[in-house]
Amino acid sequence: MVRSASREGSEHGPYRTSRSTDGRSEARHRGVTPFEIPSIELLNLVGLLGFCGLGVLVLRWLPLSYGLYLWPNRLVLLTRKLELQPLLSTNRIIRVLFPCFMVLATLRSRFPRAALLWLAVSAGLQLAC
Known about the structure:
Elements: E1 9-12, E2 15-19, E3 25-29, H1 39-61, H2 64-79, H3 90-94, H4 98-110, H5 114-128
Antiparallel strand pairs: 1-2, 2-3
Helix pairs in contact: 1-2, 1-4
């Protein structure tokens, strides 16, 4: 049952928001087990962890200035706290971190067959979401 957001609250995914007596919005989890992660959160988590691994390679393979551009942006993603969707917009934010894509291109030139693995993982994640 979906309630109107203006009066009683609304439901979004595994979360339900409702208005308390003092007018503040409260978020309540609807009993989703830890193994029932929403697919967009799974995609955001894979992107965040993958780009953190690439960030380590940025520090090793590229000039320091690229790492100084990358890691403050990465630390914002790792330290922010959002209640309803902890990884909200992570994939949108990591797309501008171009040093990681430079490392991906380097990996691609060193290991040509890795492109097939990259395509398979990408297709699998797209199908899962």
